[in-house]
Amino acid sequence: MFYVILTFMDESIVYRYCPLDTTAAPLFHYYEHMKNGTSINIVDCRITAIILCTYLIFILHSEYMLFLTDRDSISWRLLYDISNRNYDNYLKSIINLKKIDSIRSVFRMIFLDNQEYPMNTDDDDERIKMTMMMKMKNRQNFLNKYFNHLIINVDLQKFRKSKLNVFNYCGVETRIYLVFTMILLHLIDVFLMILVI
């Protein structure tokens, strides 16, 4: 926040302050401008300082939520249930793709737009997977394809048995969507971290 305020001050103040602060000097490219005799680009420095300040506020808020929130409250248990616990249960239910060749054939059929594929399996787990994937057949965008990918990788019977604490009767399809949301949020988090760096 101090650097944000500093970038909105007069450039002469920035020049006087930079030699005293080893963090401010590279932030404002102080030594480079002194060497070349050019003026500091304050607009770029403001943008950088605002991004760093926003990220710092985000980190402080995250730390507050993690360590200073009442963990017995229903809001905490609810969020933990549908995010961490559900995602952990999904990871524990992942199976080897080599064991489910019939499901992989359906997976290829959906993506390659071939003709109908008969569902003649006796395995309830595979039948449920096929049904869920067939529902997505007419809506083949990236999100639906990735949803199918998540279904194909998991033992649905095992995933169903590992119930949530708050949402005991939450359906498998909804829980797969929650897993997808967590993966998407993780990718956004990584993207924001790269953006800040």
Describe what is shown at a glance:
Keywords: Membrane, Transmembrane, Transmembrane helix. The chain has 197 residues and is mostly helical.
Give a written overview of the molecule.
Residues 113-122 have low confidence and may be disordered. This protein is mainly alpha-helical and 197 residues long. The protein folds into 2 domains: 2-67, no CATH class; 74-196, no CATH class. It has 11 helices and no strands. The protein is 69% helix and 0% strand. 14% of the residues are buried. Keywords: Membrane, Transmembrane, Transmembrane helix. The chain crosses the membrane at residues 47-67, 176-196.
Largest sheet: none
Query: Percent range for helical residues?
Result: 55-70%
* Overall 3D form: elongated
Q: Can you tell me the number of structural domains?
A: 2
H/E element order: HHHHHHHHHHH
Query: What's the total number of strands?
Result: 0
State the end-to-end distance.
Answer: 17 Å
